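Tutorial, part two.
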Amino acid sequence: MESTEHYKTHLETELIRLQTDLAGIATFNETTGDWVALPITDELTETDENVEADGVESWNERRATVSQLETSYKNVVRALEKIVAGTYGVCEIGGEVIEVDRLAANPSARTCKVHRDNERELSL
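Running the prediction step on this input gives:
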């Protein structure tokens, strides 16, 4: 495996971006380590049913966005931890070395190309 410094720099930059994006729409729960979407409170307290319904829909969209960003966040954190542990670039399913072009495209990839379709099945 080549030097991980380039990947580490990219992952650290990505982590800052994800934290910033998440902080704008969620709060971090220190106890669980999860991000929790913040509702748009002024839309949820509206007396007009249509405005209230739009607020609930916006909150559901926000929760979905938080879920996607949180998955990316956890994968980046995991990749950085692997760099420190010396296990970065090893497929979590088969133990093979993850291809350089796969890591170049996705530095937080957890699997090699052979197991890419099974990556979503791994626990966060």
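The chain is about 55% helix and 5% strand. In part three we will examine how such features are distributed along the chain.
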